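User: My collaborator and I are trying to settle a disagreement about how two of our proteins should look. Neither of us wants to argue from intuition anymore, so we agreed to look at predicted structures for both before our next call. Could you fold the first one, then the second, and keep them clearly separated?

Assistant: That sounds like a sensible way to settle it. I'll keep them separate. The first protein:
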Amino acid sequence: TALSLDMSVGGMATIANGLVLSDGNVVFAAGHGIDFSNASNSATGSTSALLDDYEEGEWTPQYEPASGSFGGSYLTQKGRYTKVGRKVTLEFQLVANFSNNTQSGAVKIIGLPFTVSAHSSGGSFHGLTIAQATRFTGDPPRGGQIQENSTKIFLWKTVEATGAGTDVAQLTTSNFILTGGNPNNLVASIT
């Protein structure tokens, strides 16, 4: 017999010794997925053992100054994401050939494909990893953090706090080279 199903428990099929598909996909109904609740060694405080979401896609990142807008254009403006359960990893590259316009203040990256939820103890804990940051004036971006309940990444040009009263400093429009032909390049990822 090629297939033997035991349908004795509420319509659930039990398959011994694994399942191999030679072609096709396993498709789950909405709200269902792979249930790991029988796995041993679940962490204390575990609230779910159901893997019910996987997605890959593209998104369009862009810089947003606190006020006004940059002149010029993007030479490269691309992003990819992978979502596994509630965890999303974003990768992106921005190459901007900006010119002076009405921009001022701190600069964020906007357009994330999902809204980031707050951690149960408050705040969001997501660190930006910068692979490359070239052709910025002064300090280039060195890190970043996603604002809770938003689709924006704050960019930091300093990431060390050296004592009481010191804080990290945000990247501002003054850190961008605003003369044509000298594009800024930022390649980064965040989970």
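The second protein, kept apart from the first:
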Amino acid sequence: DGIGDACDPEHNVSFILLTSEPGEALLEGEDLRLTLGDGEIQAAVGQGGAMEVWLDGLESWRFLLGAAGGGQLAPGLYEMAVRQPFSRSRAFLSVSGRGVGCSEVSGRFEIGEAVFALDGQIERFAAHFEHHCEYDAPALWGTISYNASAVRERDCDGNGLPDREDIDAGRSTDQNPNGIADACEPGQQVP
């Protein structure tokens, strides 16, 4: 098509992007991009239907995302996530890496793609997340892509434009510069 294989829907991509604020417990303000060149990125459906994604290589990272009540994850937004197993009635999220994890977690995540094989194992998965260690204010944001066919940037207001573009163009505000439009912050009504 003249555009290149990376733009073709059948071209599946695996990577992990992490961005943290200064003072955040896991990366302490650092940004990190992990690809297959950094180690093997794997994913599996774990206990209670949770999605487990991990990278083992020069760095070791583990991600656990799950729906409330242990249901199968589906595309959509999962608010008020906590660390498993503290609440079966809420979505759960856990991130650990570089030998550091969190005892208590708050956050949210959005599943962009979740395709399962007939045996229930994961074939393709894409998610964005916001993770707070020990309920602390500094955030870790991440994008996980496991064989994903298309990883789209966050568009929390559904206007067809990535939040980053809305913020840069002045169509949305971002008072606490976290890359999430203020109208889409937890507790806010999305227009």
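Some points you might bring to the call about the second protein. DSSP finds one helix and ten strands in the chain. Residues 119 and 156 are 32 Å apart (CA to CA).
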